[in-house]
Amino acid sequence: MLKSIEGSPLYPIVNPRSVVFFGASNRASAMGTSQLLSLKVLGYQGAVYPVHPKETTVQGLPAYRHIRDIPEIPDLAVIVLTAPLACEALEECAEAGMKSAIVISGGFREAGPEGAAMERRLVETAKTHGMRFLGPNCIGVANPHQQVNTTFLRYEGNPGFIGLASQSGSYVTQMFHYLSQFSLGFSAAFSVGNEANVDIVDCMEYLGACPHTRVIALYIEAIRRGREFVEVARSIVPHKPIVAYYAGGSEMGRRAGFSHTGAMAGPDRLYDGVFRQSGVLRAQSMTELFDFCMALGNLPPPAGRRVMIQTHSGGPGAAAADACGRAGLELPEVSRNAVEKLSPYIPPTGSTANPLDITYSRNVMDYFLKIPKVLLADDAIDIFLFYILMPSDMVRASFRDLGVPSEEVEEKSESFLNNLSSYVAHLREEYGKPLVGFTYRSFNERFVAGLLEQGIPVYAGPERAIRAIQALVRYHEIKSKIRN
Questions:
Q1: How many helices (H) and strands (E) does the chain have?
Q2: Which pLDDT does position 257 carry in this prediction?
Q3: Which of 6, 126, 284, 379 sits most deeply, having the most CB atoms within 10 A of its CB?
Q4: Measured between alpha carbons, how far is 305 from 382 in angstroms, rounded to an integer?
Q5: pTM for the predicted model, two decimal places
């Protein structure tokens, strides 16, 4: 694992102090223009130099005819040209003394023998001049912590803790909005494309040393350097988790991957073995990939696999218990001491078994303020899972029933729900145990959104919550074995 992130050849690619753009213009529909604007809109603070054969300004920036006309040697070149012109642009950058580039252009190995020959030309240029480049056939990088986004979609949300390396560009850009719904974001994200010069292993090394990255996510269609992948992953896993989604295991997946990036995929069982050997957790979908990341990046290590389920509805509790059983997790009995402490809060129709099912509350706030504290203090419990039903409209109705003036209802409801979510989130720090929620309500509900904003994972249904808990438990078991 890298000792210093600045020592990574990817550092100037994702932390450039200045960028030169080939392919941006004053035509708004051009892909290069979209990528330049994505960089500007995010608030990038470095110098941006468009190179254009005719225009004197591009999107309000002074444009240059040749890279040799630029007043400095930029840190990074972003090349969005046809494949033959991209080869020429990379050569010009290399001859000017540049060491880092992103080749967005397609039409290389994935397009056939002629494209493969041009890709070899890129590789030879980089080798001759000691240069590193991402791509070709990629969409670039995002590093919101440095206001860097060279992709064609605007970054949404805040900087986050998920480091992504993806052999699909779409799974970088299309995750911007998806992650923002859960108050998640990227620490850095790489679209590696054809991996002609920089590959997933290089990205893992960078993300392993990145101080903003708590968990590494991988979208994989093929691993080209198997031995190095295992070695690098095993060096990182004791310090931070790695989760991978492999999409090349079926015949149809292999064919799609080859037409996409020219990747030669292998059978599922082979990749299962690679992931087990390297300590990488395998997700079964992109949704699950980020479900796992949300838990792994937000929660403290569990002492074991004993899960306490709290609910006020029998069906969701039973479904959660079933999911726990299928995932190999345990449902401990609530201790006698805890049962005694719970007695003031549980009505006669409720159950103090596991799942703890309140059915209804004598005081609705006991569900969030009193009962979790008793359960989390129980030494028999490692992980706390709770069902969430706190509709914003019901809270507003309660304030109206209390006689709060209509013009104050929205503000008081939001303040109440924010305070409640803060209180529940604080329990994680107070007891040092993982807290996980699940709901069937909208994630726009203020209480749910408040929990997510404070790093408490909430999932749509118990099955997804339990799979994420299982990944959390497995990671800390793997981590312990690798260290020993």
A1: 19, 19
A2: 46
A3: 126
A4: 6
A5: 0.94
